[in-house]
Every structure is written in structure tokens, then in C-alpha cells.
Specification:
Protein name: Fatty acid desaturase
Radius of gyration: 20 Å
Pfam family, one: FA_desaturase
Number of strands: 2
Organism: Melittangium boletus DSM 14713
Largest sheet: 2 strands, antiparallel
Number of domains: 2
Helix content: 55-70%
InterPro entries: FA_desaturase_dom
Strand order of the largest sheet: 1-2
Number of helices: 13
GO biological process, one term: lipid metabolic process
Strand content: under 5%
Order of helices and strands: HHHHHHHHHHHHEEH
Low-confidence stretches: none
Length: 294
């Protein structure tokens, strides 16, 4: 009997736990002013990647049972600034239901006058309104009141734990936990700007940009296969490349992007257009497992 729904989650969870253990070590052991600041700077980007895994977890919990899921969500909360069920309400129940309608989308990239927000405006607005919007979704949908109760209760617990850390050592708590939480939430919002901006359509296959870069997808749990993710958002992250291959011929060839820093330093997030040969090569990977099974 295993605790995990999918064995592919074992190594990622071990890595998240290791990072959290290192965070705690720096928090309790650092006695100078510069180490917490250095630690904060070194982990800005990696904790942004962890945000992708927190996102996957709140679509499909990694453990079979509630207690280990809640414990993992405390770790995720300190690493990413997104607490238990915040993504579920804001993103899974909200954004995934409404992303084709910019008047309702919880992560809308349009201003009320219909013009497109810039990166900074979108990122700040999405990050600052994330928790109020999650609360609003939970209050407006009675079928998700249980999730709302978990969200509120776990958020309060996270605040209490963070308060205890500040009481013990406010300086280390600031740089090891609170600032990384805030920055990770902002970086996550910034990254989502490039998922859908400018794509106003009612067709799921035409509503997302995709990233095929292997390093990016390794670090983010295949988040680059974003059309596939929106087509079947309850699908485990390990199965997204296969679904993308099945959809490849239906996804416009111009709905691809370069990954961001540190994978690409020049032309970060730039738009790409696949050649017909590249599209066919992607589609062929979906047929290969079927031929092998036959």
C-alpha cells in the first residue's frame, strides 16, 4: 500500500521536503545578517518552479489521504506563498471554468475597458487579489463550501505558524519565509501572464500558449503543455506530453513560446511557430505507444 496516488510524485515530494529542511536549517542556524539574504536570492527562481508543482497538487492531490496532503500544503505555503486550497478555489474552480471569458476569469488579462494589461499590471493585480478572489469563489459556490472551510482554516494555521517563526527570530523569518512567499506568489502570477494573454477564443485548442523546452517541463512538471492541461485539467502532470501529442494537429502552430529565464536569456517568453514537420513529429509520438502495444 502506498501513500501516493502516482509513483511519479515520490521524488518531487522528497525534493520539496529537502528544500524545506534546508529552509529550516538556515532559519534556526544562521547567526549573521547576510546568509538569510543570500538564501533568499538563491531560491527565488527554484521556488517559482515549486509553485508549478503546488499548482499540480491542487488539481490532483499527491497523497491518497488528507493528513499528508495538508502537511505538504503547509510546506508549499511557506515555499510558494499559496496556501492549501487557494489554487483550488482561485484556479481550478475559478480560472479553469472561466478562462475563455475575460469578464469572469479570475486571472483575467483584460482591463474593464477591454484593453490588454501589461506584464507588471497583470502580475501585481493577480497576486494582490489572489486570496480575495479565492474566498469569493468559495462563498459563491455552495458545492465547494468544504474546500472553503479547509482554505480558511489552513490559511489561519499558516499565519499562526509564520507568526511563531517571527516571534522566535523576525529577521531570519523575513528573508527565509515571508519574502520568498510574497515574491513566489508574484513570480507565479507573472508566469501565468504568458499562458493566455491575447488569446480571445471559445476554442480550448486555441486558448493557450505552450512551451516544449525539456528543461522547463522537467522543472515545472510539464506545465508547458498548457493546452493539454486545460483540455483535461484533472490529468496527472506525467501524462500531459502524451495528451499534447494527441492534440498537436489541432493546436495552431503559432501558439508556442520560449521558456523564461534561466532557460532562455535572450528572447525569454518569445513567441514561436512550429513548422508542419515539427507538428507532425509531435503527433507521431502519440501514435508510437499504440503501435508498440499492438
Amino acid at each position: 500500500m502506498t501513500l501516493f496516488r502516482y509513483p511519479e510524485d515520490r521524488i518531487p515530494v522528497l525534493l520539496f521536503a529537502t528544500v524545506f529542511a534546508l529552509d529550516l536549517s538556515v532559519y534556526f542556524l544562521a547567526s549573521n545578517w547576510w546568509l538569510p539574504i543570500l538564501w533568499f536570492g538563491l531560491w527565488i527562481i527554484p521556488k517559482g518552479w515549486i509553485s508549478s508543482w503546488n499548482h499540480h497538487h491542487q488539481h490532483l492531490p499527491m497523497f491518497k489521504h488528507a493528513l499528508p496532503n495538508r502537511l505538504l500544503e503547509i510546506v508549499f505555503g511557506f515555499q510558494t506563498g499559496v496556501t492549501s486550497h487557494a489554487w483550488f478555489l482561485h484556479h481550478v474552480v475559478g480560472h479553469h471554468r472561466n478562462y475563455l471569458d475575460q469578464e469572469k476569469d479570475e486571472s483575467t488579462w483584460k482591463r474593464p475597458d477591454g484593453t490588454t494589461m501589461g506584464e507588471l499590471e497583470y502580475s501585481l493585480k493577480t497576486a494582490l487579489t489572489a486570496y480575495p478572489r479565492a474566498l469569493k469563489v468559495g462563498l459563491e459556490q455552495p458545492q465547494h463550501r468544504k474546500a472553503l472551510r479547509v482554505f480558511v482554516g489552513m490559511a489561519l494555521l499558516q499565519v499562526v505558524l509564520l507568526g511563531a517563526l517571527f516571534w522566535h527570530n523576525w529577521y531570519n523569518a523575513l528573508f527565509v519565509f515571508l519574502l520568498p512567499m510574497a515574491v513566489s506568489l508574484y513570480v507565479t502570477a507573472w508566469a501565468t501572464y504568458f499562458h493566455h494573454v491575447g488569446l480571445e477564443t471559445k476554442d480550448h485548442n486555441e486558448a493557450s500558449y505552450n512551451i516544449l523546452h525539456k528543461g522547463y517541463n522537467l522543472m515545472t512538471g510539464n506545465l508547458g503543455y498548457h493546452t493539454a492541461h486545460h483540455s483535461k485539467h484533472g490529468l496527472h502532470w506525467s501524462k500531459l506530453p502524451e495528451l499534447h501529442a494527441q492534440l498537436a494537429r489541432h493546436i495552431p502552430a503559432n501558439l508556442y513560446r520560449e521558456p523564461g529565464i534561466p532557460f532562455v536569456w535572450s528572447g525569454s517568453e518569445a513567441k514561436l511557430e512550429l513548422t508542419p514537420e515539427q507538428v507532425e513529429a509531435l503527433a507521431a509520438t502519440a501514435a508510437a505507444p499504440k503501435r508498440a502495444a499492438a
